[in-house]
Design goal:
heterodimer; A: mainly alpha; two-stranded antiparallel sheet; B: alpha+beta; 9 strands; elongated; binds iron/sulfur cluster
């Protein structure tokens, strides 16, 4: 069986601006307009948050939950670069681009969410930092990771593009910059795993301070560890799911070797997660809460099954090598991880009886808007950059489409067919 | 890499290490470490509220709003007079009535910030907008540092900090012991000064604790569990409660006697001590990545030499 994924190849000659493109575009614009409006008006008007449920979907979903599936670059990167799994390098760009999009939208949600964002500038004054605060760690590490480390990791992708389509001067500059980048690359990349390990665990650490407000099935000293493992599970799951789904959509052959490897790694991490999760419940003597069969034990069982089923299934070679099963298993494990990360901040967070929280329409629209921004950007990115793996036959060195030309041509009703960059 | 570690590589490692240190929170030598059982400052002030004395006249509520220049919140009175439904961004102090479902037992309770000895709100606040005054132990808020993240609301076990949801430039509103308006002028807070029955009194924390214990000793069995709420709860607070009904019924949660910030930070405090954890981890990661990097580059170069396309990082 030869591996059909020899190279990362842009998606050539595919209609990007289909109807769904404009639908996602409209939702994105709506979300961004609402976000802009929120910035100039009080929070209360835009959200269902209150003094007891002081964090709404922007924080508990976009920041605390969705960055878990934005941890593909952590999970796949650790496997490829730290544990030396050569096979997985081909999945790295998919991981890096999707991770950046999740982190970027997460950071936007954070800015929309905080009430006094103009005081964020203090982040550059370390003597104002509270070293005990898990939130400080998140506030410093997350943007640093997204805008320094993740962006840097995505630089080769952009350089490669311009080394094919840029002017001679640009190409010359890239040639000179390339060795410098390659010198620092491994050291920056090492930091790019340290930081998410730190802030993904701190996200779990945030809820420690809420103490008894979080249901005992979730309130535990191992929250940070389980959060970071759940991030790895979600990261593997999402990268795999995205690879399979996008390749299917653009009719690319799939390398079973790579996707089953990711599936297998995901299942091992899930087992580790399950062992820690269940031992923690046993050690803290919370078995009775599991067997209470109230909404909390139901949530716990759902989340555990969502994790356990794919973990077990993927241990069978035949299952692992069926793309359909892999898609389903990735989706299940991803959902399980997301549910685990969402629950302590939402369903299992019970600060006061007399209050309740349900997101308002603008809150939901902004959240969806940010997500569709991610989908949209992903679709554009795979077209203009070499992100998706493909066969060598699909590779047309001279056929990189100039950025934005096709968008422009759409408005000017230029001749049909993809214009080439020599135009 | 360890064998061939040149000085330049070492230097580079150090540079990046310090860059990582710069973006990580600094567990500075000066920062106080949370202890399981925090101690009160010698000059710690306090408040003692005896629910069995309170007549529910709410004079303290009016006084609090007056001293703190807060507007009236008439939500509970149809617009007639100050009658908030709960502590909120216009109310730092409230008197609530608890009635037991059928036993005919009732009690008032006064709620405001507890000025915890080791406050969860202070521990969580990222930029130290909330801080505990080292001398008097009052927990204060500084608007020039607050980013409005509301982690203090998530963290506080007593649901005290409130956020101005209806303001574009929102503040965190909570009892600050009238520190600027009264304490710094050598006067007592608005609420304790206004209380006609002496249900809530002001004083030094240790003196008030002794007084509370004296009352319990004077009438054994009168007070719930013969216990002063706040002496040890959640590591201890600077506001004490005496009541004839279970504290939980008055909205005062049973939190155990350990400080919550201690619980939340005890593992991290070790891992992050002098940033040792992150630095060691970075070192391991860098060694591993570097080794695999060399291997990977080597393969790519061979691949290119054999006429393959340029590598893709
Ligand atoms: S009661 Fe709440 S707001 Fe007051 S000091 Fe304690 S944790 Fe902070
Ligand atoms: S809302 Fe303000 S005071 Fe409260 S934790 Fe955040 S920064 Fe600190
Ligand atoms: S000490 Fe001052 S701010 Fe606090 S409840 Fe009493 S009057 Fe209000």
């Amino acid at each position: 069986m030869s591996n059909p994924w020899q190279r990362l190849v842009p998606v050539y000659n595919k209609e990007t601006h289909s109807r769904s493109f404009w639908i996602f575009g409209a939702i994105t614009v709506l979300g961004f307009v609402l976000a802009g409006l929120r910035m100039v008006s009080p929070l209360g008007r835009y959200s269902g948050m209150n003094d007891a449920y002081a964090w709404g979907v922007w924080k508990i979903f976009n920041v605390m939950t969705l960055t878990a599936i934005g941890s593909g670059s952590l999970a796949v990167g650790l496997a490829a670069w730290v544990f030396g799994n050569e096979k997985l390098h081909i999945a790295m760009r998919t991981a890096l681009v999707t991770s950046f999009l999740f982190y970027f939208t997460g950071m936007m949600a954070l800015i929309v969410d905080v009430g006094r964002p103009w005081n964020f500038w203090q982040i550059i004054l370390p003597w104002r930092w509270n070293g005990h605060s898990a939130l400080l760690e998140v506030a410093v590490c997350m943007p640093a990771y997204a805008f320094l480390f993740l962006l840097f990791e995505n630089v080769p992708l952009v350089l490669e593009r311009f080394s094919y389509t840029g002017s001679d001067r640009v190409k010359g500059a890239i040639k000179r910059f390339d060795p410098v980048m390659k010198k620092v690359y491994p050291f920056v990349v090492a930091g790019a795993y340290l930081l998410p390990l730190m802030h993904q665990s701190s996200l779990g650490g945030l809820m420690l301070l809420s103490g008894p407000k979080v249901h005992p099935l979730w309130q535990s000293q191992v929250l940070p560890l389980l959060y970071v493992l759940a991030a790895c599970i979600c990261g593997f799951a999402f990268v795999n799911w995205t690879l399979l789904f996008t390749c299917y959509r653009y009719r690319r052959p799939i390398s079973i070797e790579v996707v089953s490897e990711i599936g297998s790694l995901m299942s091992w991490v899930t087992f580790a997660w399950l062992v820690i999760r269940i031992s923690d419940i046993l050690i803290r003597g919370q078995v009775h809460a599991v067997l209470a069969f109230d909404r909390y034990s139901f949530l716990f069982l759902t989340e555990t099954l969502l994790m356990a089923i794919p973990a077990i299934l993927l241990r069978f070679k035949s299952k692992r090598e069926t793309p359909r099963t892999l898609v389903t298993c990735s989706a299940l494990a991803g959902l399980g991880g997301l549910l685990y990360r969402f629950t302590p901040t939402a369903f299992a967070f019970t600060p006061a009886k007399s209050y309740s929280y349900f997101p308002t329409l603008p809150e939901v629209l902004m959240t969806i808007g940010f997500i569709s921004f991610g989908i949209l950007t992903w679709r554009i990115a795979v077209r203009y950059f070499a992100i998706l793996p493909g066969t060598n036959e699909e590779w047309h060195e001279n056929n990189w489409e100039p950025l934005f030309v096709s968008l422009r041509s759409r408005f000017h009703k230029k001749p049909q067919g993809a214009p080439t960059w020599q135009e | 890499m360890s064998a061939g570690l040149t000085r330049r590589e070492l230097l580079r490692l150090a540079c990046i290490g310090s860059a990582a240190a710069a973006v990580a929170p600094v567990e500075t030598a000066t920062a106080a470490v949370h202890s399981e059982k925090p101690q009160a400052a010698p000059g710690a002030v306090g408040m003692l509220y005896d629910a069995t004395v309170c007549t529910g006249c709410k004079a303290c509520m009016a006084a609090c709003n007056q001293v703190n220049e807060l507007p009236a919140d008439s939500a509970g009175s149809g617009g007639l007079y100050h009658a908030p439904l709960d502590l909120n961004s216009k109310t730092k102090n409230i008197i609530k009535l608890y009635q037991a479902p059928n036993a005919g037992k009732w009690s008032f309770v006064k709620r405001q910030c507890m000025h915890c000895l080791d406050p969860a709100c202070v521990s969580g606040c990222p930029f130290e907008a909330l801080s505990k005054d080292p001398e008097k132990g009052v927990v204060r808020w500084d608007g020039s540092r607050c980013i409005g993240c509301r982690y203090c609301e998530i963290a506080c076990p007593f649901q005290i900090p409130k956020f101005e949801w209806d303001k574009w430039n929102p503040r965190i509103v909570k009892c600050e012991f009238c520190i600027t308006q009264r304490l710094e002028k050598g006067e007592q807070p608005g609420c304790t000064g206004a209380c006609p029955t002496g249900a809530v009194i002001f004083g030094k924390r240790d003196a008030l604790l002794a007084e509370a214990k004296r009352r319990i000793a004077a009438s054994p069995g009168k007070y719930f569990e013969n216990r002063v709420y706040g002496e040890k709860d959640a590591g201890g607070t600077q506001v004490f409660y005496l009541a004839a009904v279970p504290f939980k019924d008055l909205g005062l949660p049973e939190l155990g006697t350990d400080s919550i910030p201690y619980y939340a930070t005890k593992v991290n405090a070790k891992l992050y001590k002098w940033l040792s954890g992150p630095l060691v981890l970075y070192g391991i990661l860098a060694l591993a990545v570097n080794r695999n990097w060399k291997h990977h580059r080597h393969e790519q170069e061979q691949h290119e030499a054999k006429g393959g396309l340029p590598e893709q990082l």
